[in-house]
Amino acid sequence: MSGDAPPKEIIKGAIQALQETEGMDLSITLVGDEETNKSHVTHLKSGTASSRISFLHAPHTISMEDTPTKAVRNNPDSSLVKGIKHLSDESEIFISSGNTGAVVAAALFNLGRIPGVARPGLAGITPTVKSGSVVLIDIGATTDASPENLAQFGVMGNAFAKNVLGKEEPKVGLLNIGEEQSKGNKLTKKTVSLIHKTDLQYIGNVEPHLLLTEPPADVVICEGFAGNILIKAFEGGAEGTLGFFKQALRSSLRAKLGGLILRPTLKKLQNQLNYSQFGAVPLLGVKGIVFVAHGRSGARAIKNAILNARQASRWDLPGKIESEMERIDFSE
Amino acid sequence: MSGDAPPKEIIKGAIQALQETEGMDLSITLVGDEETNKSHVTHLKSGTASSRISFLHAPHTISMEDTPTKAVRNNPDSSLVKGIKHLSDESEIFISSGNTGAVVAAALFNLGRIPGVARPGLAGITPTVKSGSVVLIDIGATTDASPENLAQFGVMGNAFAKNVLGKEEPKVGLLNIGEEQSKGNKLTKKTVSLIHKTDLQYIGNVEPHLLLTEPPADVVICEGFAGNILIKAFEGGAEGTLGFFKQALRSSLRAKLGGLILRPTLKKLQNQLNYSQFGAVPLLGVKGIVFVAHGRSGARAIKNAILNARQASRWDLPGKIESEMERIDFSE
To answer: For B70, which residue in chain A has the nearest alpha carbon?
Structure first.
């Protein structure tokens, strides 16, 4: 209920996901105003998919403007909180395109943290030109993170890259403003000594400009504020480049002709770079499988989020993170 | 001497700048190993440009790996420190593609701060698709900046946008991870109340993804670490998009044909997006005109840096920043 797109778009994505998995083990509970949701399902011609949809009524909505902790405490009847509670009771996966901070707060209150984890991290996954992908953690769950938080993000991101992306010995780097060890701020400098206490294959500082082309690491640790700026700047850099390109395509007759011929290629590229392809990113460190989708997520993003998240229930990532955490002692 | 490109490249750029300004008031002092520099000038066929080149011998070099403050203190004979000292004595502009932190430290020690300015800020300038440009301050001079530092970056960036970019009443925003006022970290939240003590035309939080396409502000305040990540992620986002695009151009015969026709357009686009077009960015808040060029700057970037910086001596930006600072009281 609390994403930037109308509920109808979200429900459309859910129905599409069910239609693409006909005969498979997927059912969806729509959490929100029951009457609204039911009428959308009826009007959207969901066909046989509707038999795999159930409804959980939640009369309230937490908005993007709400202060996360307070909103979660004061709104036990919101779709976001009821959805997370449903996860701890009955469902296997929870997906939301709502207020990220509120999802994190609700997950912490109702699911709790994996033993040993101080703060959860959102693991972003970016495609790379070279092939393969890079895990960026944290991209916005925990702002004002401590060095210990960052080292733990590394451990969780490593578990994700190993178990989900199938990388055998992931290389782990630290997001920084220079390659050299002397570069960075107080936080990055303190973090390095803690990372050395882990058995991560640590390769040092990683700068943003190489991440999409020739990433030197499989997992990049970042503080939530900087990580969120990073991922949104990649998005902006891609949108800006496409914008400049489209402008250039109007600059001459020759360019216009080339643009016409390349129209299908450009469409494919735009799709490839669009966040809706990935759908949603996992919140690591809490006891449960929680995915956060982009606030602007429409039907396509939600469909992909559901299909990708569906794979997640097989990984038992919370269990794997727990056993990794047990092996590490961050104390001085 | 201390950039990532060899001195020969830097000198080539300097000679090109002199050649493009023949008959105009520009002369250049090359600071570094005098013998090396002289032999490059001789071999690079500088022609009449050589009469406007002088040499300042500096036997030492501060490297990218050096810790800024220590390196500046211990190396009074480095090209970087001697260059900054030359600025306070004789020259009007100093340009370096060396260690950014060391340039900042040397400028603080030898030129000093403009009265009222607590920390200097590097003002990045990004082009936008819509037209015009956006000033991002700070993009890496001051990491671990305080709320007061950030509010002052706003004042300095505003003076820059007004006096240099000719914007009458610049709109000023704060880089953040959400549009809503409740979003952000401790630093951004504390900064907002200080910004309200200025007479800046403050428009609130600004997210990275809109900056290159439809920027809501003319000046964006950011902490140095996040600002540096932002600018390098834009660079990476552009490089990544071009990389994916080139990949797509090999995917079919039709795409190959389109790519062939668009080759000149793509070349122009790549140039437009390349940092070397802008050359260098000004360090605001110190008593003197200091420009920092990208570490990777080659001849083209250095030439553009010199030509752009040459305009700067007319602005008297240090004087304008000083009078803006006098009007503001940040104390509680």
So the answer is: A182
If one counts every other C-beta atom within 10 angstroms of the C-beta of residue A127, the result is 16
3-class DSSP state of B96:
strand
Contact between residue A84 and residue A106 where contact means Cβ atoms under 8 Å apart? yes
Contact of A315 with chain B, judged by CB distance below 8 Å, is answered with no
A232/B177 CB distance under 8 A: yes
Tokens 């640590």 label which residue?
A202
What phi, psi does A56 have (nearest 5°)? -125, 115
Structure tokens at B9: 């490249």
**First CA to last CA across chain B, in angstroms?**
45
Q: Which residues of A touch B181 (CB under 8 A)?
A: 65
For Cα atoms A156, A134, A183, give the angle at the middle one, nearest 5 degrees.
85
Mutate which of B228, B246, B275 to test chain A, going by most A C-beta atoms within 10 A?
B228
**Which residue ranges of chain A lie beneath pLDDT 50?**
none
B200 alpha carbon, distance to own chain's centre: 22
pTM (two decimals) = 0.92
- For residue A275, the model assigns a pLDDT of 64
- The C-alpha atoms of residue A234 and residue B199 are separated, in whole angstroms, by 32
Q: What value, to the nearest 5°, has the Cα angle with vertex A311 and ends A310 and A313? A: 75
Concatenated DSSP letters for A212-275? TTS-S-SEEE--HHHHHHHHHHHHHHHHHHHHHHHHHTTSSHHHHHHHHHTHHHHHHHHHHH-G
What's the pLDDT tens digit per position in B14-31?
A: 999 999 998 888 999 999
Contact (Cβ atoms closer than 8 angstroms) between residue B92 and residue B74: no
DSSP string for A279-299: -EEEEETBSSEEEEE-TT--H
Closest residue, chain A, to B102 (C-alpha) = A183
Averaged pLDDT score across all residues of chain B: 91
Q: In what order do the strands lie in the sheet with B289-293?
A: B93-96, B289-293, B280-284, B121-127, B133-137, B219-221, B171-175, B201-206
- pLDDT tens by residue, B35-55: 999 999 999 888 888 899 999
Residues in Cβ contact with A245 at an 8 Å cutoff, skipping those fewer than 6 apart: B245, B269
Distance CA B309, CA B281 (A): 9
Query: For the ranges B118-122, B252-256, B275-279, which has the lowest average pLDDT?
Result: B275-279
- In our burial notation (b when 16+ CB lie closer than 10 A, e otherwise), range A249-263 reads beeeeebeebbebbe
Highest-confidence range of A267-281, B207-221, B311-325, by mean pLDDT? B207-221
pLDDT in tens, A195-229: 999 999 999 999 998 899 999 999 999 999 999 99
SS3 content of chain B, % helix, strand, coil (to 5): 50, 15, 35
Burial of A305 (C-beta count, 10 Å sphere; 0-12/13-18/19+): buried
Q: How far apart are CA A230 and CA B33, in angstroms?
A: 39
Question: Cα(A147)–Cα(A133) distance, rounded to whole angstroms?
Answer: 25
- Structure-block tokens of residue A68: 């996360």
Residue B332 confidence (pLDDT) above 60: no
Beta bridge partners of B32: B57
**pLDDT for residue B45:** 84
